[in-house]
Amino acid sequence: MRALIALGQLFVLNMIYLLTVIFSLGLLVGPATSALFCFTTKLIQKRYDNTQIVKQYLALVKEKLKYALFLEIITVAIVYLCSVNLDNILFFNYPVILQKAIIIVQYIGLIEISLMFLVGSYLHGNYEFKSFKDLLLMSFYIAHRHILTTIILVASLLLIIYFVFYYLNAILFILLFSLLALWVSLLYNPICKKYVIMRENNHE
User: Using CB atoms within 10 A of its CB, is residue 32 exposed (0-12), middle (13-18) or buried (19+)?
Assistant: First the structure.
């Protein structure tokens, strides 16, 4: 019964997320993703409240708007530049070794910015930061300091992309984004909790 309730809650979150992104024409992907991470973390910690969930979600999107939009714009810009470079690399008469090196660098850039967006959205959804710079630095630190967790995240994302591409169906789609957010939250909640405890101890 609890599993069915949890699936129902994930379904509702996924639909709210999709509708927010669709009706904003994709402009609110960043804020909507941060809000989704916040609610999946609440679900894990059993602090989830179904009361006026749409109102709560939209209020959180508004609250997280500024930094999340900055993160979204940076992500889109870097993904665009890397994609253009990959599309055009063969038009230049670079030596083969240099071409391969540039291609590798572009793929590394795509992986890095994807990680920064996911970890940054997770952190922004669950914690307060004094500045956008602090959010970026913490996102970079968490993603690279805990490399094993990051490797697990990247591997799982590749598997998810594979299954979505080859086996996408309605059931998977109606739960896809909330399940992904839930998985990221499960991976990083224990890690970030340690930093919160360390910070509280330092203040004492």
Answer: buried
**Domains in the chain, number:** 1
Quote the CA–CA distance of 123 and 125 in Å, as a whole number.
5
Could you tell me the pTM of the whole model? 0.88
pLDDT by residue for the chain (204 residues), tens only, comes to 666 777 888 888 999 999 999 999 999 999 999 999 999 998 888 777 777 788 889 999 999 999 999 999 999 999 999 999 888 887 777 788 888 898 999 999 999 999 999 999 999 999 999 999 999 999 999 999 999 999 999 898 888 777 777 766 666 677 889 989 999 999 999 999 887 644 444 444
Domain containing 192: what range?
2-203
